[in-house]
TrEMBL record:
NCBIfam families: Bac_Flav_CT_J (TIGR03782). InterPro entries: Conjugative_transposon_TraJ, Conjugative_transposon_TraJ_C. The keyword Repeat does not apply. The keyword Mitochondrion does not apply. This is Conjugative transposon protein TraJ. Residues 3-338 form the Conjugative transposon TraJ C-terminal domain. Keywords: Membrane, Transmembrane, Transmembrane helix. Coiled coil: none annotated. The chain crosses the membrane at residues 21-43, 63-89, 173-206, 226-248, 269-292, 304-324. The gene is traJ.
Length: 341
């Protein structure tokens, strides 16, 4: 869906547009870090003097190194991390694009074979082609048996069109939900990265103070973990695309070997995989947490997002069953109306 690709690009542009705001927070962070550095150095120098020990200069350089990072935060910190992590994103995205291209190629081949198989069979050719339907109708006369045959053809074609329309509508709905789930993950990722980037200098400044030293490592781990949501999402989409390619290849081989092969079962399996994909997208934060561990709020979010994923899967499964049941009733109802006419 091209419109969703545009939204992903907008989120990427939003992140880049918000980066200059880091400089606005650098002034506050420099004051906070400078005050923290003063107390940090003073306490350690006083302790060494009180114990009549030599002053160890190396640990005292920590506040100054953090101060340099705050002073050049967009370039040194964000620029370096985004450059390194961007290589991972580009690598996984190239894999996804390759698999998606192959999937579209096999899908077009399968649709063409399905159409050709229906056209080869005189009993189903009129369902797939308007020209063939009109030709068979014109060949019929006005005898009672021809009228019955004509009525049956109209009913079969109407039932086929209704079934196909409902199936395509349900598939498009699930594809929309699948793309929306990816967009939700990307939107939350962008929001978290923007917040971490803008308030990053403040987090660095707090890490100068005693008792807040773990803030620095926590910020790095959270930023990396959330940044990895995108490559993990691309890998998950790549796996789903590869599964669909294997399914399409099996269907194509079966259709080439057996002209009477039915693709109805494979269409149902495709819908099931869409539901799996919708639920699976909400497990991406948890999987990213396995790569690099981050505590605090992100850990709580992973638990909440997992609950949301389970709820989404339940709703999607309920919707699939509901639509399938109503589809059968609707087709029988429409067929009954046509028969009465």
């Amino acid at each position: 869906m091209g419109e969703f690709d545009n939204l992903h690009q907008i989120l990427l542009s939003l992140y880049e547009e918000m980066m200059p705001l880091c400089s606005d927070m650098a002034g506050v962070a420099k004051g906070l870090a400078g005050l923290g550095a003063l107390f940090y150095v003073a306490v350690r120098v006083w302790q060494s003097l009180a114990r009549a020990e030599a002053i160890d200069v190396y640990p005292l350089l920590r506040p100054f190194a953090i101060g340099l990072c705050i002073l050049f935060f967009p370039t040194i910190v964000l620029g370096t991390m985004n450059s390194v992590l961007g290589v991972i994103v580009q690598g996984t995205h190239s894999i996804l694009e390759e698999q998606t291209f192959d999937m579209e190629k096999y899908r077009e081949q399968k649709d063409r074979l399905e159409y050709e198989a229906m056209m080869r069979n005189p009993e189903t050719a009129y369902l797939a082609s308007d020209e063939e339907f009109d030709r068979q109708i014109d060949e019929l006369g006005w005898s009672p048996s021809d009228m019955i045959t004509m009525t049956g053809m109209y009913m079969d074609r109407a039932a086929y069109n209704i079934k196909k329309s409902v199936r395509d509508w349900f598939r498009e709905l699930l594809e929309l939900m699948f793309a929306a789930a990816a967009l939700v993950i990307d939107t939350l990722r962008t929001f978290f990265l923007v917040v971490l980037s803008i308030l990053g200098p403040v987090a660095f400044a707090f890490s100068v103070w005693d008792g807040f030293h773990s803030t620095l490592s926590a910020w790095f781990s959270r930023y990396i973990q959330i940044y990895l949501w995108l490559p993990v999402s691309d890998l998950f989409s790549t796996i789903l695309a590869k599964i669909q390619i294997l399914m399409l290849q099996n269907d194509i081989e079966a259709m080439q070997a057996d002209p009477n092969f039915s693709v109805e079962a494979s269409n149902g399996v495709y819908i099931v995989f869409l539901v799996i994909g919708i639920v699976g997208y909400f497990t991406i934060p948890t999987v990213a947490g396995w790569i690099i561990q981050a505590g605090g709020g992100v850990g709580s979010y992973n638990k909440n997002i997992g609950t949301a994923g389970a709820l989404g899967g339940s709703l999607a499964g309920a919707a699939a069953g509901n639509v399938a049941g109503r589809t059968g009733k609707f087709i029988r109802k429409q067929a009954g109306r046509l028969l009465k006419r």
